[in-house]
Queue: 3 jobs
Job 1
Amino acid sequence: MLSAIMITLVVSSAQVAVSFHDNESLVEPDRDPRYQLYLQTVVRDTEGQLLSVSEETIAWILMPALPDGVQIPGLVDRMIDNNMVAEKEVIIIDNVKYDKLQWKTDVIIDNERLTSLGAAKVGMFSGAIWKFCGDFKQEYGNLCIPLFEGRTPQIHITEGDVITNQWTVLRPMN
């Protein structure tokens, strides 16, 4: 009888893990030591109450490529040099000068992002992929290309939660 109760409790309390990753994350990451990439994830409920804060200190750059497989070398450098995402600033850490780029993105959790288990609508979030969007000339047009990926510890989410991802890129200056 105790076994039946335990099994019922375990099965009925299971939650669906929702991944915001596509197969794009299977692209070989760029472990270029010139860059340091960080991801901080903050989750707040519908009333704005803080639910979770987590960080990934070993996020990585994905090899940017166009739909036909043509790679785009130097996209991160161009992004930093041309302030394409955010204004860069110069900072000094341990006597080393860095170009620093930092920006935030928000995701509001809705029905489409969750898989339903009966009446409960809960899931888990475990990282993010940031896509660079731009006009890639007439041949390709406007595209969004996966560029950064970071994984965080699993975070419980529900409909109405807001996930704020803060990305930070550091590039040592010569």
Note: The beta strands are 29-30, 36-44, 50-56, 60-62, 89-93, 96-108, 122-135, 142-158, 162-172.
Job 2
Amino acid sequence: MMSETVRRLKINKRYEGLPCRWCGQLLLVGDDGAICGACESPHHAACWDKQNGCNGDPACVNRPLAQLQNARPVETATRPILKPGESYCPTCGDVVTDYCFRCQNLAATDYTGPKQTSAEAKGALRYAIFGLFCFGFVLGPLAIVRGTAAKKTIAQNPRLEGEGLATAAQIIGGLEVLIYVGYLVSLIAGVNSR
């Protein structure tokens, strides 16, 4: 069970005549008192409140924290002056122009610079188109997987575009898989009907 930090009471016969641990004056019957919950040291309530804790045992857990004397202020690093179009990355604090490649994080503003089409999206669409003419059972699923990977990369990097190409690759790849599955089902149904 956890004891209370301080017990506040009117000084009674038990504590009468004991010195306050802060001011040294005697405690008198009827004074407002504060008895430390950890070391049982008596104090005037006003002294306890003014000093913010116990002055009994030097190892008492209710002693006020020691104040640092002549402590130097914490020095903060000076930030460089920003040029037009630059800002600080909200995650790592680096100076960036719209996008932090370290954190893969947009800066304070959305990226409005030039974009290039993702090579992954182009490759996924190539697999999907070749799959229409041959090896669709292999290239269709590959187009779906590559299209999904391209969408993730585009979502992480605002300098890339081509989400439409990746979506087209996924759709065409899905159609190729459906066509191949339909073909297999028709073959199996033809064999079973004989």
Note: Residues 163-193 form the longest helix (31 residues).
Job 3
Amino acid sequence: MQGSGNRERPVIPKDPAWEARVRESFGRQRHMATLGITIAFLSPGEVHLALPFAERFCQQNGYMHAGAIASVADSANGYAAYTLAPAGTDVLAVEFKINLLAPARGEGFLTRGRVLRAGRTLTVCQADVVTTGSGREVLVATMLSTIMVRPASAEAAGTGT
């Protein structure tokens, strides 16, 4: 996140327990578990997710399906926004646009989601998906997302009603 001029502004999360909250939420993501996605890096305003290559998630030409790539980019952006959200809130994507820039082929993929601007209600994030394992990264997709911060539901908080 850029401040005035070229100096980086420190990103200070609104919830001191942000990391535990993010990890707990991610642990409830059945779709991420199905795809084999893991957290590779966590920092306030930035989340990296790793997606291993899996033939069962490929399209007809042997590339990872755009749906799998979009899923990991969406979650990286959502969790980047969540790192800066206040306690007692949750996040939901309200809009995203993805550009698929190259065929998604590689041993795996790393998605770097980062907050571009965190507002009180809306947070704008960007995720870049790159290949891993070949010695050089290839940018296969980029996603721009708008994420809404909202009060956490009883189900999300694990209390149910």
Note: The first strand starts at residue 38 and ends at 43.
